[in-house]
Each structure stands twice: as structure tokens, then as C-alpha cells.
């Protein structure tokens, strides 16, 4: 464009011959959205079910509408190094082959959507980077993205994410502070902004008919943002709260410590996050006007020629070009050259970097991370040398370093590579790291583990890279995945494309992040030469380091020590020692698919899954894919047993069993994993959940492998000890997070017969026996009810083979009595209850408040739709009320929630018929939007199976129910549950600190992490603000007096 903005426009290319779609088709498709989540199991292995997220659309006080136990809360996903590493690895596995590149038109056609969307990627200053996710979207739809490059802000630290929030608080043309969010919510859309080291991404999506107005509203933030002083002051408090929430995260703390090792003057040396001190108090002391600095920041860095814009819609390209030119031409161009950081290379070539750092983590964990800082590798995106090396380093099959370390019981997991985030790869350096999750024994031998990584990977890789077989296998696997990839969520697609415009040549915008274009051994060798012991940084994370670490990182308070790397081990690494004979190249992969033919249906096609097998031992639901037409399949099974919930010890034995099974499968199933066949084992509340997906050609082989290992389950005492010790850490890490502790307490109160995480942790700490585990596994496998779902490119005969294989291999008897897969929920009294407990981490200042409103009698979709409609109306004003206009302490939150609901009651009464109708229409359009890929449909159907509800046409029923709901219905429903007879439960988890009346705050570290002390709940009395509320002083005693509601199920 004339102002320098680079824009890419994407139209619905259903009419490639140039003829526009019919008016009927256009009218039908002018709105829509994606409501359902995707099939999100990126990593293979075992998972502990958390007891479900209960914020479902309809909840008869019933916390048990679980979606098969994949909720992340109790898996400590935000903080779990293991899951972070798996996530990074999965990101790197996405397709790679120049031979399979689709044409531009073919590829874009895959991203057609009924919603219009827009994305902006901005390239911000290093000095102000705060990687947060400022999201307020109701649902994910296609999107429009945009990109800006900006340089340093020297005196005011951490301005970028702070600025991102402030710039969206009204514009000259649309001054209402939260007007844009309200506009999007009203029309079924959402927006988001996220920052990284050198880019910031903005996006929104909305129904097509409102797209042009939304574009104009959105563009004004980059043209004339108001940036009101009062809003800036309030937003400082919000940023400070986010900083406090980030402090107990080991990932954030390790990153901050790592950055502190950079050369003075390099942006990585600065504070990434921002808090009240750096954004308010210190600027005031130094006579720095924050408002003026933000204005200067906007003028310097929000220049059109730094930005890239991607717009996707079902409008014609001519229409999109007209709109974009008209609206975005007003973005100013400051005429200044783009900021460059090319002079800031080798930021970690310092004596401080090449050391061993012992660190005390928040969680119970042992991990060793070996890191090298290489010259920037972004320019080699067509070769991707770090991706190639990481494939070999991170291999987990026979002959791999992880296999070797597991046999010695030194390691549980290993990841090698570059996460491709701005922190790990940017224009000044690229990181290559090897991260090993250690056992207790592995912690004692961490130097030997370090040397093993060289033996298995780096030394041998010099030989490997000269051979083409490995490279060609990687290419083949990733080519298959790329060629047959399912349609990407348009939001993700447009976001990636907009960022790619910042990074790659024009011809590689679509494929630069996915394909291996060139095999150049010399570039790989150059990267390998950088991985020497003299250039390595070692970080050893362990609670056992407590007492040895007398240094403290400035911003997060991380306790650490610094020492020279032991010369003996450094010299050994550098020497030409003999490689262990157990280490060898990966063998040829038998799981790589070669048959991609679509199967011919052998039974009548159906819109929803049908039960094709039913016996006393189990049943099978099946649906042949006739929509997406890809050679892939999804297979899910639930092995149900009433044995699990009989005692806390049984739950622990079950968790141990599933984790050992996953451990046993790690090596033999890894080849399937790298061949894009994914699996996950979930220790559910009522049974073992097995999920596999991928190319249908070889998927039965993987499923049979899992069942074989289940049938022939065995373990050694050493494995038993290793897994139970790790399980102790897992339980502990769950309990020290306020949000998961609050959930555990709430479900303990609500769910009849529930065993809490504290019950399980205390029982585990008392000890388990090998004999008890063997007896439990035998009993579990002896009596089961197996329920399965098979969808995708399978015939009904092939689908039946999955269930038949389970029955024949396991040889189990049917259950004597049916086993419901839901907890029953207690009937709360008609009053406001409070359960207030102290957090179990003495170093955590954060508090958590949950207010639960119990609604009974939910048996109809019409009733459930009131919940969802109410949530849509309430979400934006609630966010605005509690976060933007109110800076709250933990004592006031509960009252403020009630205050908001009282205000909202008046607001919902005053809704105009037009506003109500618009919201209903937006929700209907969301539910009418077709699934973007097969996984979404499978997720929805599996949820019906695993909860034994079987309402496969739930969406259609809800759409019909929504069409009949009136404004009076919604008001009456809300008032009925706001009466004096309402049932309310508040759960408060109170953090430590002076603000909570504690003495000097304990240093932020994992208290009791090494002492073995068993935590117990400390219940607190209500505050003066809540003296009129009934306080629960003994959870089990109180709940034993309550009645129990029937099992919850939608009847129609």
C-alpha cells in the first residue's frame, strides 16, 4: 500500500472460475463460527484425569460432565516442563517437503470460513517485551492479523504488553473504552493480542455482515488511539497482577534467570514482564512521564511500513482490496528505518553463561537443561539445521539416549531442539537446548547424563548427517502430514501466515515454517560445531538444591548458585571416547503410512455415530467419515471399572498402573509417534481411556501394540519406585497451585464420595507395595465394561476389529452391575457458603476466589441454552467490571462478584429486543458453523460417549431451543436463580504475604519440597466482610449432612 503496509487478502475461493457464488449460498454462509474445541492431544503418554472442568453449559450442580479427563488444570500444564517440551516438539513436527507443496490456490481454499477475520503482527522492542496473552475472545474463528517492528525503550522498562492493553482502550473515532470488545461480543466474535521478543500479534474475528465496521473500529487503534491517562494508571495495576501471577512459574523464572546472563546492554538482560514498580513508581521517582513515553513509543514503532496485515473473508478480493485500502491507508508512516538488532550478536558469549547453575524450583522436579547460544539461524529456514539435529537428539526409540538413560533409571523424558519462540530464536541469537527430566537417581548422576547426551546424539550425529536415509525419512513423514493435513482453524492459519510475512521470502509465506526445502550438510555441521562443552550452559533444577543456593534473581526471587562446570566431565565430553554399544541409529520406521486410499463404505452412511456392536462386555459406536475425506482415523476406548473409586489407595494404584504402562510403551511406540500416529493414555475417574489418531493405514498396529502391552503388563521394582516417586512430585505440584487447590476443594465439597488430591497425596506418602499394585492390576483387568468410538477412514468391519481385539486379548469378564461414569452432587442449602483455606505454597502471594452457583433441575437443552446465552451477555461487562474498573484484593472479590450480578440484573432487564435478538442470532451462528476438521467432530461425539449421554445431535437441539428463547425467558430464568433461595458456594484460597496478615513473606520457593512433610488444609475464618456468610469449618463433616442429587443427564 502507499503508506508501506504490506497486506495479504484471502477470499473464499470456492468459485475459482471467477463466477461469484449464488446469492442464496452467500446469504446462507454470511455468518458462522467454530464453537467446538479441537482434538488437542499433542503429546503421547499418560495423563491423570483431574476430575473435570465443571463450567459446562448446563450443570445441575453436577460437576461430572467430563470430556474424558483431558482437562489441563490438574496436569499442571502451564508449569509442567515435561508438557512444555512435548508441546515444543509437536510444534516442530509439522509438515516438511518441497515435493508436496500445494499450489497457492489449493492451499488457500482449505481455509474457507463463514466468519470474517483480520490479523495484525507487530514487531516490538526487545526492551519492552512481556510475553502475555491478552485475550478476551468468546470463540475462535478466522482472523485478521498485522505486524510491526519496534526498537528499544531504554528508561521505561517493559512497555510493550502494557502498551498493547492501553492502545485498545478507545480511539478518537470510537472513544468508548471497551466499545470494540462489546461490539465483537454482540456479534459473536472475539479479539486477542499477544507479544513476543520481536513481534506482537493482534487479531479479531466477527460475523461477516459486521466485518467492515469491525475493520474500521479495529484499524483506529493503529491510527488514533486515545491512550487516556486514567486508563493507563488502571492498566498498570492489571499488569502488576499478571506479574504476580507469573512469579510462581518455574518456566518464567528459569527464562528470567537465563536472560540475566546476557551481555550488558542486550535487550535480553532487561526485565521482560513489567510491574507497578517499573511502570509507575520508578518512573515517578525519575520524573518520567509514562503517558508521554507510551505516546512516543506508538509514534516510533506503530508505523505502517513495519507492519504486515492478513485479511480473510468470504467477500470478493476486489471488495477486500477496496475496504483495506480505504481503512488502513490512514495508518501513519513515520519514515524511519526499521529498528535492527543485527549489532547485538553473541549476547551470551560471557563468562557468566558458561557455568553450572543450581536452581531451587517452585515445583517438585529434577531436571537438567544444557543450552548453547548459536548465531541466529532464522536465515537458514529452508534448511532448518536445528530441526534436523533435534530430530536425532530427541529420538526415544531403540538405540536412543533416552532409551539408554531409562534403562539406567536416570531419566523420564528428554527433549532436544529449539522451541522457535522469540525467546529461543530471534535476529540476535538462536538457542539449542537439551532438557532431561531426571529421576532421583538421575539427579545424583547429572554429569554422567550430560555426557550421555553427547555419546548418543552429538558425537554420532557427525556421522548421521552425512547419511541421507534419516533425512529422507523425516522428509517422507512430514510430507505425508503436510499433504494430508486437516483444515487449519482459520484463526491459527491467518496468524501463522501474517507472522511468516515478517520472516520469509514471498514465495515461502505459505510453507516457510513447515517444509524442509534443502539438505545442506555443511550448514548442519556448522551448527553442530557450536555445541561444544566450552560454550554450554547447564541449569540443574531440583528442590534438593535448597540450602546450597545463596544468590537471588532480582525480579522473580529465584534462588540459585553458580559454579564452574567440573573440569573432569568437561574434558570427557570434549574427548574422543568410545560410544556405548547400546546407542545406534534409528531403525527403519514400520509405521510410516503408504496407503492413502479412501475406503468404500460397507454400511449405510449416517449423520451421527451408531452403535454397531453391543455385548455384556462392551459396545462400539461408529461413523464413517463422509465429509472431510482424508485417510485418517480416530479411535477412542474407555475401559470402565468400579474398582477405581472404591478408595484413595485404589486411585493411586490406578494412576501408578497407567504411568508404568505409558513408561513401558515409550520406546516401542515412539516410531509410531514420529510417523504422525498419536496416542494418549488417560487415567480417568472411572477407567482407562485410550486414544489414538493418525493415518488409518498403520493406526491398527499402534492400537494393537497398546493393548498387547496392557494385556502383558509387567514392571520391575526399580520402575515401580521411579514412577511412585514421580507421582509424589506430580500430586505435590498440583496442590501448590492456588487455582487447582481451589478446584480440588470445591469438588471435594460438591461431589459425593470424591477423594481429594490431598487424600491421594497423603495416602501415597504413607507408601504403596508392589504386591498391592499387582493385585489391583489383576483385579482391574478381570472385570470391565469397554466402550469405544471409531471414526474416520475405516469400514464398519475394520471398526469392529478394534473392540474384538480388546475383548480377545484381555479376556475379561463383564461387570456384575452397571458402573455410572459420573459423580453424584450434593444438594447445597439455600444460603451462601464459604470455604476459606490457606494456599499450600508459602512462597505464593496469589489468592484464588471461586464463586459457584448451583442450579438444579436442568434436564432440557432449552434450560442449558439459557446458561450459554447468559454467559455471552455477561462475559465482556464482567471482565470490564472486575478487571478494568476495579483493582481488587482477595477480600473484596466475592462481594464485587455479587455487586456485578446485581448491576447486571438491571442491565439484562433493559436489553432492547434488537440487542437480545442479535446475541441469540450470534450464538445460533456459532453453533451452526461446520467443524473445521474431523477432530472437532470426534471430540464432540466422544464427549457424548464418555459421559454416557449419547445426545449426538445436541447442537441441533440447542439451535432449535435458542430459536424459541425470548428475552422474558432469560430475565425470568436469571431472577429465579438470584432469589433469596439461591445456592452459592465460595471457595477462597488465600496466598501468603503482608497483605494477608502474614509475617515477612517467605522467599518464593517450593516449601516442604525436600522435607517430605505431608501438607494439610488450613481452614480460615471468614473476614469481616463475610461475617454474615455460613463458613465451612470441617468439609467432610458438613457435606455428610447434605442430600445427594440424582445423576445429571440431558433427557431431551
Automatic annotation (TrEMBL):
In what ranges is there compositional bias, type Acidic residues?
23-87
- Record GO biological process: proteolysis
Q: Which keywords appear in this protein's UniProt record, sorted alphabetically?
A: Hydrolase, Metal-binding, Metalloprotease, Protease, Zinc
Is-annotated flag, keyword Transmembrane helix? no
Stated name of the protein: Nardilysin convertase
Hydrolase among the record's keywords?
Answer: yes
Family, per the entry? Belongs to the peptidase M16 family.
Q: Peptidase M16 C-terminal domain: which residues?
A: 290-447, 768-890
Q: Which organism is it from?
A: Zosterops lateralis melanops
Q: Where is this region: Disordered?
A: 15-91
- Tell me one GO molecular function of this protein: metal ion binding
Record domain Peptidase M16 middle/third: where: 482-762
Residues covered by the Peptidase M16 N-terminal domain: 166-264
Amino acid at each position: 500500500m502507499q503508506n508501506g503496509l504490506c497486506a495479504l487478502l484471502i477470499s473464499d475461493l470456492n468459485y475459482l472460475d471467477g463466477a461469484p457464488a449464488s446469492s442464496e449460498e452467500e446469504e446462507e454462509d454470511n455468518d458462522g463460527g467454530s464453537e467446538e474445541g479441537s482434538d488437542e492431544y499433542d503429546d503421547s503418554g499418560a495423563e491423570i484425569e483431574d476430575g473435570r472442568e465443571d463450567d459446562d453449559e448446563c450443570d445441575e450442580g453436577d460437576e461430572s460432565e467430563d470430556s474424558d479427563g483431558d482437562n489441563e488444570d490438574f496436569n499442571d500444564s502451564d508449569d509442567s516442563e515435561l508438557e512444555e517440551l512435548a508441546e515444543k516438539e509437536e510444534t516442530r513436527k509439522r509438515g516438511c517437503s518441497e515435493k508436496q507443496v500445494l499450489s497457492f490456490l489449493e492451499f488457500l481454499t482449505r481455509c474457507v470460513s463463514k466468519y470474517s477475520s483480520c490479523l495484525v503482527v507487530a514487531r516490538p522492542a526487545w526492551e519492552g517485551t512481556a510475553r502475555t496473552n491478552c485475550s478476551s475472545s468468546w470463540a475462535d474463528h478466522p482472523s485478521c492479523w498485522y505486524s510491526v517492528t519496534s526498537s528499544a525503550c531504554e528508561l521505561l522498562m517493559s512497555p510493550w504488553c502494557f502498551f498493547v492493553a492501553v492502545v485498545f482502550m478507545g480511539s478518537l473515532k470510537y472513544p468508548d473504552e471497551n466499545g470494540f470488545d462489546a461490539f465483537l461480543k454482540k456479534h459473536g466474535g472475539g479479539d486477542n493480542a499477544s507479544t513476543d521478543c520481536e513481534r506482537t500479534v493482534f487479531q479479531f474475528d466477527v460475523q461477516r455482515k459486521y466485518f467492515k465496521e469491525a475493520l474500521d473500529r479495529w484499524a483506529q487503534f493503529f491510527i488514533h488511539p486515545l491512550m487516556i491517562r486514567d486508563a493507563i494508571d488502571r492498566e498498570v495495576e492489571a499488569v502488576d497482577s499478571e506479574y504476580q501471577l507469573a512469579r510462581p512459574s518455574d518456566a518464567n523464572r528459569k527464562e528470567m534467570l537465563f536472560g540475566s546472563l546476557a551481555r550488558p546492554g542486550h535487550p535480553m538482560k532487561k526485565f521482560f514482564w513489567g510491574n507497578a514498580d517499573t511502570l509507575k513508581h520508578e518512573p515517578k521517582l525519575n520524573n518520567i512521564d509514562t503517558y508521554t513515553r507510551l505516546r512516543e513509543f506508538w509514534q516510533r514503532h506503530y508505523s505502517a511500513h513495519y507492519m504486515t496485515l492478513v485479511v480473510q473473508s468470504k467477500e470478493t478480493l476486489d471488495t477486500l482490496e477496496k475496504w483495506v485500502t480505504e481503512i488502513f491507508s490512514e495508518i501513519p508512516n513515520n519514515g524511519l528505518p526499521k529498528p535492527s538488532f543485527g549489532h547485538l550478536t553473541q549476547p551470551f558469549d560471557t563468562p557468566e553463561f558458561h557455568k553450572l547453575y543450581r536452581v531451587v524450583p517452585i515445583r517438585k522436579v529434577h531436571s537438567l537443561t544444557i543450552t548453547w547460544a548459536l548465531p541466529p539461524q532464522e536465515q537458514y529456514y529452508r534448511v532448518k539445521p536445528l530441526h534436523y539435529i533435534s530430530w536425532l537428539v530427541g529420538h526415544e526409540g531403540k538405540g536412543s539416549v533416552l532409551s539408554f538413560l531409562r534403562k539406567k533409571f536416570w531419566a523420564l523424558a528428554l527433549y532436544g531442539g529449539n522451541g522457535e519462540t522469540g525467546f529461543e530464536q530471534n535476529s540476535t541469537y538462536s538457542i539449542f537446548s537439551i532438557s532431561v527430566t531426571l529421576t532421583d537417581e538421575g539427579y545424583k548422576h547429572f554429569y554422567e547424563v550430560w555426557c550421555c547426551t553427547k555419546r548418543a546424539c552429538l558425537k554420532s550425529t557427525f556421522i548421521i548427517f552425512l547419511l541421507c536415509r534419516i533425512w529422507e525419512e523425516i522428509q517422507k513423514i512430514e510430507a505425508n502430514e503436510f499433504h494430508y493435513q486437516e483444515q487449519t482453524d482459520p484463526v491459527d492459519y491467518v496468524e501463522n501466515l501474517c507472522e511468516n510475512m515478517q520472516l520469509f521470502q514471498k514465495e515461502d509465506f505459505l510453507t516457510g515454517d513447515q517444509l524442509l526445502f534443502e539438505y545442506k550438510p555443511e550448514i548442519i555441521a556448522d551448527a553442530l560445531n557450536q555445541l561444544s562443552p566450552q560454550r554450554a550452559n547447564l541449569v540443574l533444577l531440583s528442590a534438593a538444591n535448597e540450602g546450597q543456593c545463596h544468590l537471588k534473581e532480582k525480579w522473580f526471587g529465584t534462588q540459585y548458585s553458580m559454579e564452574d562446570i567440573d573440569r573432569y566431565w568437561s574434558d570427557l565430553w570434549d574427548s574422543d571416547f568410545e560410544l556405548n554399544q547400546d546407542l545406534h541409529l534409528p531403525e527403519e520406521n514400520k509405521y510410516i503410512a503408504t496407503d492413502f486410499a479412501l475406503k468404500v463404505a460397507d454400511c449405510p452412511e449416517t449423520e451421527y455415530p451408531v452403535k454397531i456392536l453391543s455385548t455384556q462386555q462392551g459396545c462400539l459406536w461408529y461413523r464413517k467419515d463422509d465429509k472431510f475425506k482424508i485417510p485418517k482415523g480416530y479411535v477412542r476406548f474407555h475401559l470402565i471399572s468400579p474398582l477405581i473409586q472404591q478408595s484413595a489407595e485404589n486411585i493411586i494404584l490406578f494412576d501408578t498402573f497407567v504411568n508404568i504402562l505409558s513408561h513401558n510403551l515409550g520406546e516401542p511406540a515412539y516410531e509410531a509417534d514420529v510417523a504422525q500416529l498419536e496416542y494418549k493414555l488417560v487415567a480417568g475417574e472411572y477407567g482407562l481411556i485410550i486414544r489414538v489418531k493418525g493415518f488409518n493405514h498403520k493406526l491398527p498396529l499402534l492400537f494393537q501394540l497398546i493393548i498387547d502391552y496392557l494385556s502383558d503388563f509387567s514392571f520391575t521394582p526399580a520402575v515401580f519406585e521411579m514412577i511412585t516417586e514421580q507421582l509424589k512430585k506430580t500430586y505435590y505440584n498440583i496442590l501448590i497451585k492456588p487455582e487447582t487447590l481451589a478446584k480440588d476443594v470445591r469438588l471435594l465439597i460438591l461431589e459425593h464420595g470424591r477423594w481429594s488430591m490431598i487424600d491421594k497425596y497423603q495416602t501415597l506418602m504413607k507408601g504403596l507395595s508392589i504386591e498391592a499394585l499387582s493385585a489391583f492390576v489383576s483385579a482391574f483387568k478381570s472385570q470391565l465394561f469397554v466402550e469405544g468410538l471409531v471414526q474416520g477412514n475405516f469400514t464398519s468391519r475394520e471398526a469392529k476389529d478394534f473392540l474384538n481385539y480388546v475383548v480377545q486379548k484381555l479376556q475379561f469378564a463383564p461387570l456384575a452391575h452397571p458402573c455410572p461414569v459420573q459423580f453424584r452432587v450434593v444438594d447445597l442449602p439455600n444460603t451462601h457458603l464459604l470455604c476459606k483455606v490457606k494456599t499450600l505454597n508459602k512462597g505464593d502471594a496469589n489468592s484464588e476466589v471461586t464463586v459457584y452457583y448451583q442450579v438444579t433441575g436442568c434436564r432440557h437443552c432449552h434450560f442449558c441454552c439459557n446458561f450459554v446465552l447468559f454467559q455471552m451477555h455477561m462475559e465482556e461487562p464482567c471482565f470490564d467490571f472486575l478487571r478494568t474498573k476495579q483493582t481488587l484484593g482477595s477480600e473484596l472479590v466475592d462481594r464485587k462478584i455479587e455487586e456485578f450480578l446485581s448491576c447486571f440484573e438491571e442491565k439484562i432487564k433493559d436489553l432492547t429486543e434488537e440487542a437480545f435478538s442479535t446475541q441469540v442470532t450470534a450464538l445460533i451462528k456459532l453453533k451452526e458453523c461446520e467443524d473445521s476438521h474431523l477432530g472437532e467432530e470426534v471430540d464432540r461425539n466422544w464427549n457424548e460417549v464418555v459421559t454416557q449421554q449419547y445426545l449426538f445431535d445436541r447442537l441441533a437441539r440447542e439451535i432449535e431451543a435458542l430459536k424459541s428463547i425470548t428475552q422474558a425467558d432469560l430475565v425470568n430464568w436469571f431472577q429465579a436463580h438470584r432469589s433469596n433461595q439461591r445456592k452459592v458456594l465460595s471457595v477462597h484460597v488465600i496466598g501468603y504475604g503482608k497483605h494477608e496478615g502474614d509475617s515477612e513473606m517467605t522467599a518464593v520457593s517450593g516449601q516442604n519440597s525436600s522435607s517430605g512433610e505431608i501438607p494439610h488444609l488450613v481452614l480460615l475464618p471468614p473476614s469481616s466482610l463475610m461475617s454474615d456468610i455460613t463458613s465451612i469449618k470441617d468439609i467432610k463433616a458438613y457435606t455428610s449432612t447434605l442430600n445427594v442429587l440424582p445423576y445429571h443427564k440431558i433427557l431431551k
